[in-house]
Design brief:
This protein has 324 residues and is an alpha/beta fold. It folds into two domains: 239 residues, Aldolase class I (TIM Barrel); 66 residues, Antifreeze-like/N-acetylneuraminic acid synthase C-terminal domain (Type Iii Antifreeze Protein Isoform Hplc 12). Helix content is 35%, strand content 16%. It contains twelve helices and ten strands. The strands form two sheets. Strands 3-2-1-8-7-6-5-4 form an eight-stranded parallel beta sheet. A two-stranded antiparallel sheet has the order 9-10. Strand 6, helix 8 and strand 7 form a beta-alpha-beta unit. The termini are far apart.
Length: 324
């Protein structure tokens, strides 16, 4: 089960079928993810005939070729455990939901199934933590999720735009905050925008779980590679995420510790002319200037009417030691 924290972003590298059906390639992605400190790797599992019609022969063959066997999946699960990285999957066909729940203990539901009751109901029955992407959905469809999933503590929504790639102006990241406040659940972000900018903004808007397509080479032919982050891209994102969270900080109640020299910026009191010892201060003898030392600008009336015990100079700060 994924546990989210306010001061840390949980990163999911979606390799989907980028492994192209190769067990060794999938292991390479797990190794890369571990090396670069990605928190989890996610697969896509589904039977070809339930994923797409055989009339779509190119995609049907692709799914047939890349659908990992149970033996391969068990191998990857054991490999990920040894590498100490979470591995889980999206059942892109409804016949794989129970299998995914049993093998991984965590379910991710793709945007395309947000209104597909067989998958939603099967996932809800498992009572496992479920992450649901909201791409291409309506607000009514998102509301309907909560009629099926009763335990909000085990549900995470992911704001997502189902456009590949998504232009930055279409990211609509305000929905991260909107959905969180609307449904009172954790809301993360599943990215299809090229680069890391959208992910960074999502983090500033409160997303503490970020999913992105992950590859070793964005120049590979399949579209998922094009919209993926390479390890070097993720390194940048991770560092920026840490800086973003550090920069959020705490609410202002008083001066922060790093503002210890704040009085240098505040207005204090200065003399408007040279004055002699025993002189009684009038209002016109005092003006304001930085810095604030012994007296704030608001303490002028404390000075008016008092007598000097020493000579003072024009435009010098008013000091406590100047008075009897």
């Amino acid at each position: 089960m994924i546990k989210l924290k306010k001061n840390k972003v949980y990163f999911i590298g979606e390799i989907g079928i980028n492994h192209n059906g190769s067990l060794n390639k999938a292991k390479k992605y797990i190794d890369l993810a571990k090396k670069h400190k990605i928190d989890a790797i996610k697969l896509q599992l589904g039977s070809a005939e339930k994923f797409t019609t055989i009339e779509n022969i190119k995609r049907y063959k692709q799914r047939s070729r890349t659908d990992l066997s149970k033996k391969q999946i068990n191998n990857l699960i054991n490999y990920a455990k040894k590498r100490r990285i979470l591995l889980f999957a999206t059942p892109v066909t409804h016949d794989r939901v129970k299998f995914v729940a049993k093998k991984f203990g965590l379910i991710k539901i793709a945007s395309g199934d947000i209104n597909f009751l067989p998958t939603l109901r099967a996932a809800a029955k498992t009572n496992k933590q479920t992450i649901i992407s909201t791409g291409a959905s309506s607000l009514i469809e998102i509301k309907n999720i909560f009629k099926i999933f009763k335990n909000k503590k085990k549900l995470i929504l992911m704001h997502c735009i189902s456009s590949y790639p998504t232009d930055i102006e279409n990211a609509n990241l305000i929905n991260i905050k909107y959905l969180r406040e609307k449904f009172n659940v954790h809301v993360g972000y599943s990215n299809h925008v090229l680069g890391t900018t959208a992910c960074e903004v999502a983090i500033t808007l409160g997303a503490r779980i970020i999913e992105f397509h992950f590859t070793d080479n964005k120049k590979r032919a399949f579209i998922d590679h094009k919209i993926s982050l390479e390890p070097k891209d993720f390194d940048i994102l991770k560092k920026k995420s840490e800086d973003i969270i550090s920069s959020i900080g705490k609410k202002r109640l008083k001066q922060f510790a790093c503002e210890k020299n704040f009085k240098e910026l505040r207005k204090g009191l200065v003399y408007t002319k040279n004055l002699s010892s025993n002189y009684k201060i009038t209002s016109s003898d005092i003006d304001y200037s930085r810095p604030q030392k012994d007296f704030s600008f608001s303490e002028k009336n404390k000075i008016v009417g008092t007598k000097l015990k020493k000579n003072v100079k024009k435009y010098f700060l008013v000091r406590k030691k100047d008075f009897k």
